[in-house]
Amino acid sequence: MRSSRAIYVLVLLAALLAPCLTCNAQFKREAFSQQYNDDNPNQLDTTQQVFNLKKYIGGLTHKREADVTTMFEGSVLVVGGMQIYNRDYWKLPIIYTGIAAGVTGGILYGKAGNTKASTLCYVGAGLMYWGALLDGTINYRPQPYPSPGIPPLYSLLVPGLGQIYNHELWKLPVYWGGMIASAHYYFEYKQYFERFRSIYNDATNPEVHYDGPISAESALYFKNLYRRYRDYAVLAFFGVYLLQAIDANVFAYMHNFEVTEDLTMDISPAIIAPANQYAFSGSQAPALGLGLRFTF
Predict the structure, then answer these.
(1) Of 14, 132, 218, 292, whose CB neighbour count within 10 A is largest?
(2) Among candidates 229, 221, 232, which has minimal Cα distance to 199?
(3) DSSP characters over 67-110
(4) Which of 170, 138, 162, 159 is nearest to 68 (CA)?
(5) Quick check: 227 and 183 in contact, CB under 8 A?
(6) What is the pLDDT of residues 33-48, one digit of tens each?
(7) CA distance 43 to 37
(8) pLDDT score at 284
(9) Is the bond preceding residue 142 a cis peptide, omega within 30 degrees?
(10) What angle do CA 148, 135, 170 make, to 5 degrees?
């Protein structure tokens, strides 16, 4: 159980830090000397920006232009920041009221013992919070195309939306299929795990007269086996989730990367001079060979 809990804690931390880690930097500045997004030379490359509180405050007060990554990261902590930057002030009461109502209802229903209603209220508050981030990202201004900071945020909020932004619809079945398959195996292995855990508990409980065909040792083995498979399914799900966000960022960044179609290889006769012809005059005669020349 301890290993299982540790895995869940790590996955939760990865999900919470994903916006900052994914959008922070996939490439170092020194790795590329060409500016691929030349349409707006004053635009900051959002894949190379780290959250800066001064930039965020400047964006909120409209004293300076802030990149979408900085505003998104700030709005994760301060809900409604992107709406303020976009000057959509009328949306703030809706967002704050929805989140406050959901949290308050969850607390009150929880104290009353109505677990189902409390859970629904918390889910509603979470959806309002998620909707605020998605709305702020969609309506972010200015938003030139392609903007490397937009697709990973889209993909973190709605898996596959970043690929749609990049016009790479063929990738959707790959990522959606991976996440759906991971979720399917999670619930399947979870069901098997709970079954064998119940059998093991009954077989090892002296107060229960267990006479089933499965022994306690076998139940323990299969319980641990399916628990491990269940945890692998969770890791696979979040692995595909983060991969599609990184993929959206990388291919948006490389959108305008130009590779000429004139890729040729020329083979022609060549005279190969010996390496020591200048040091030792007349020691070896030049040889006839083939020369390869690549054009790209």
Answers:
(1) 132
(2) 221
(3) -HHHHHHHHHHSTTHHHHHTT-TTHHHHHHHHHHHHHHHHHHHH
(4) 138
(5) no
(6) 444 444 444 444 444 4
(7) 9
(8) 63
(9) yes
(10) 50
Residue 77 to residue 74: CA distance in whole angstroms: 6
The overall average pLDDT reported for the chain is: 79
As given in the structure block, the two tokens for residue 284 are 């070896």
Rounded to whole angstroms, the Cα distance separating 138 from 187 reads 33
The pLDDT assigned to 101 comes to 95
How many whole angstroms separate alpha carbon 151 and alpha carbon 160?
A: 9
Question: Measured between alpha carbons, how far is 130 from 124 in angstroms, rounded to an integer?
Answer: 10
Whole-number Å distance between alpha carbons of 43 and 148: 11
Q: Which two tokens stand for residue 290?
A: 């083939």
Structure tokens of 198? Answer: 């119940």
Q: Which of 89, 86, 88 is nearest to 141 (CA)?
A: 86
In this prediction the pTM is: 0.67
Burial 134-155 (b: 16+ CB within 10 A, else e): bbbbeebeeeeebbbbbbbbbb
Cα separation, 159 vs 153, whole angstroms: 10
pLDDT of residue 189: 95
Angle at 75 between CA 70 and CA 79, to 5 degrees: 165
- Comparing C-alpha atoms, which of 248, 263, 268, 270 is closest to residue 294? 263
Q: Where are the domains of the chain?
A: 1-16+158-257, 44-143
Q: How far from 248 is each of 36, 42, 129, 182, CA to CA, in Å?
A: 16, 23, 23, 20
CB distance 173 to 160 below 8 Å: no
In the block, tokens 């490397």 appear at 148
